Batch of 3 targets.
Target 1
Amino acid sequence: MPVSEDVLLGFETSDDAAVFRLRDDLAAVLTVDFFTPVVDDPYEFGCIAAANALSDVFAMGATPLVALNILAVSCSLGTEIVSEIIRGGSDKVREAGAFIVGGHSIDDDEPKYGMAVFGTVDPEKIIRNKGALPGDLIFYTKVIGTGIMSAARKIDFETDESMRPVIDFMKELNDKGAQAMIAAHAHAATDVTGFGLVGHLHEMLEASDVSAYIKWDDVPLFDGVFEHSSAFCRPGKTFDIIDWASNFVEQGNLDDEEYNNRMGVLCDPQTSGGLLVCVSPEDAEVFIRKFEELAGRKPALIGKVIAGKPGSISLV
Ligand code: CO
Ligand code: CO
């Protein structure tokens, strides 16, 4: 139950960030995220952690303004590594047009970094999880498989070289996708993170009382992702997500093996994933053009919203 009618979005929905009304035409958007290192390079880890934390603000169609660092490191890590992490974070925040204005650090054997981000939005223009309509086209703005690729790197199935595009995508801000979805008056959006592509799509569909289909062949994957998934080279968390997601992702006429291999990909937890955006067919061209103009590549059209059991997803 909201403590105040100015709490526009809080605990009760699975939206990406909390929203608090400051004035009729202005609301504060608040989010926090931090995690353990996902790459070896401390500077790049800082960039990824910041891009990931900022993403929940962009996913709401809001503008980030300031951020606070959250850092847990052991003294034995050395000041040089710590300052590289923070430099990465602050460079990303600056790229997003925002500023780091403080933070807090504690002593911890397992390093962790991230930030709390404050942004603003016109309450009338918030783009939520809820609002997708039958007929909307579903776009994804990055490439799926960061969890699988990181798992594969750990056992030397991938190299530093083959990980380059994966790291570059994780470092990329979702600001361009956000600008494109605002221009295209998107009906609903979220970013894809720890619950994988179908986990986050499900939340959006359920909140919108609709269902969807995904065109499997049109889901953009990093090279090797499907093969690694089929060889069960996946992050441990994926298996729990598949258990949950098999309740709403229909198997259709896929045999068990093919269904499970695809689910390994579709349930792969993403670090700093892209935006999942629902746009009316009339506005799709605006979204594609704007995103391409800003990002230098096209967003992937991966499926369509349809009327049906809220939250259910079929693969075609
Ligand atoms: Co999110
Ligand atoms: Co988050």
Note: The chain is about 35% helix and 25% strand.
Target 2
Amino acid sequence: MVVPEPGLPTAVTIYEVGARDGLQNEKALVPVEVKEQFVRRLLAAGLPVVEATSFVHPTWVPQLADAAELMSRLGADGVDLPVLVPNERGLDRALELGLRHVAIFGSATETFARKNLNRSYDEQFAMFEPTVARALASGMDVRAYVSMCFGDPWEGAVPLDQVVRAGVRLLEMGASQLSLGDTIGVATAGHVTALVAALVDAGVGVDRLALHFHDTYGQALSNVQAGLRAGVTTYDASAGGLGGCPYAESATGNLATEDLVWLLTGLGIDHGVSLDALVATSTWMAGHLGRPSPSAVVRALGHGG
Ligand code: HMG
Ligand code: MG
């Protein structure tokens, strides 16, 4: 039953990260033809944005070492799908394929910058600056992530102003959107409200924010609700709840796209995604990965792929 809540956005963009955030953390290497099929099925299910892979160092994330082959196979469909690039080398690889959307990924904390990027906190910005400048000069759209927005497994709680500083610095480089990453899934609703308010107070339009929740403590949907009440209209999610970050202890699956779709549908918020097609896709993918989806909605509705 659809029961809208007054004051919430009427439409939301779901930014699908299953093929990237999901598959980067899988122990099993997924064949490139299965990844291609996964991306195509996600697009066919109506997802407007599908982040497909990462042009990172292949020994850092061997699961995505086939990035160039995947994007070549996707051909014209792949050109508008975002890919992660950490540096100019990654950007060159994306440019060679004519891709039009890249995402850089910074850290709000010193420790995670070193663990994930092999750079100090300040050095990460020095790495991103020429990368973003060249991407923009080439006509690309650049998204920026900031990780460890709510807590860091090595440094503990992360102060709001520290996240705001990192996020504003990435946006000032020219990123069109800032995705606030709860990398280890420790956020709770009041913290989300406070962080969005702190960014808005710092002059960041709420329309430039996206929220990226991992569901480690089962809080992701409650956090989405807080984001909706604060006016955020882009949510990252991963089909079937796949995901994590190989360089963050205790990072588990992302918010499952199906769980997000269920919530949005119930609230009468437009999202454009076919839940049936999505559940079938995640059930099919779970078959390839050899384990069931952790998504409650996939478990409730899934029956074969
Ligand atoms: P490094 O070892 O310091 O690299 O790694 P370097 O700059 O010293 O270069 C060393 C060699 O690597 C050179 O080759 C480079 O060309 C090559 P050589 O001259 O020795 O032959 N190289 C590359 N090759 C291919 N592609 C590249 C590339 N860059 C350098 N892009 C680096 C630094 C940033 C590359 C490395 O640390 C890295 O790849 N890190 C990525 C880690 C990662 O992907 N983490 C997961 C994504 S982040 C995430 O999941 C969080 C998020 O979901 C949000 C959230 O949840 O919070 C986004
Ligand atoms: Mg993530």
Note: The chain has one domain: 13-300.
Target 3
Amino acid sequence: MQARPTNLDESKVQPYTLPDPLVMQDGTPVTCAAAWPARRAELLELFRQNVYGRSPPVPARIPFAVTGTDDRALGGLATRTEITLCPTGAPDGPAMHLLLYVPNAAPKPVPVFMGLNFRGNHSIHPDPAITFSANWTRYAAHFDAAKDGPLDASRGSRASRWPVAKILGRGYALATAFYGDLEPDFDGGWKHGVRGALATRPPPAADSWGAIGAWAWGLSRALDVLEQQPAIDTTRAAILGHSRLGKTALWAGAQDERFALVISNNSGCGGAALSRRNFGESVARINETFPHWFCSTFKRYNDQEADLPVDQHELIALIAPRPVYIASAAEDLWADPKGEFLSALHAEPVYRLLGRPGLESAEQPPLNHAVGGTMGYHIRSGKHDVTAFDWDQYLAFADRHIPRRAL
Ligand code: GTR
């Protein structure tokens, strides 16, 4: 069946009714903070069953090895550590290569920004000592070069998205890994990643996890390992991601309450944007183009968004009362900037119930102007990307919520 045509015209947005995050499935209203955990559990289960699928249990032990360390990295600014971990618990299973920079000057332990990268660890900074990602080379042919620019294999090709010196200078560590270490991003990629390694029964069940679930789960396994690094304060771990990895960051933060702060950069459909708003990428389009990202039940809602028992504002609500930041880009209509804002706005009642200020703005703010209390939002000018402006807001938000220690 042909998916409904994409709508990019605000005047053609059809009315819709969102499920209320503060009403239980059986109709009971959630009126006090003490009643929230039960609703939270219910929503989490609905997202597992209908959207992202169910993640496997946490392995008893995550084997890891420090494969390299240099305490005079980046001209003495940082200690660079590379850690190889086995997210499934099996030493001969898929390996995740974590690159960690810790600022030398900051009092330890330091808060940390964590996020997966699209092009291998070597793409985030020209530092010649970063191990070149073998998995990136292995799977590069699967990248959509037309959409995402030419395949630049060079070191630092994505440095504009990772202002490493600025992050370190502000007293934060940075931990990143190539998302393809967990699962290469194509239909059938599961065979080469953690889903394949843990598969128990093909064909998968309707609520078996998709690739987004696998990437999110891997971030939690990286956090397991960071908890064993004395220089890192994992009670102040921020997780961030762009686009499909923004969807991933939200799902990781929703499930794993150890993530103290969650940032979605231009995450769009299946991320921060409301599914019921017919603007930009739709559930049908995303399921058609990326059949491996979500659980198979999600396909039931192709052009039938009103039947979803949840919508994406409830994903944001699952992060409450922890700080969450949603960022849009004005030219990124495919991701529905307004739908991303509205999703945050409709999650706000949960933050309020839990005694936290929310967005503090009922209207989408003007371009390049951040708003918010425990929830943050901005829409900046420009395209689908991560820019210096975005990072400036994230660092300011982190300074307010997971500050570094005073010298
Ligand atoms: C697009 C996709 C979006 C977003 C983006 C990205 O093609 O339609 O949902 O995830 O890719 O991750 O770059």
Note: The longest strand covers residues 232-242.
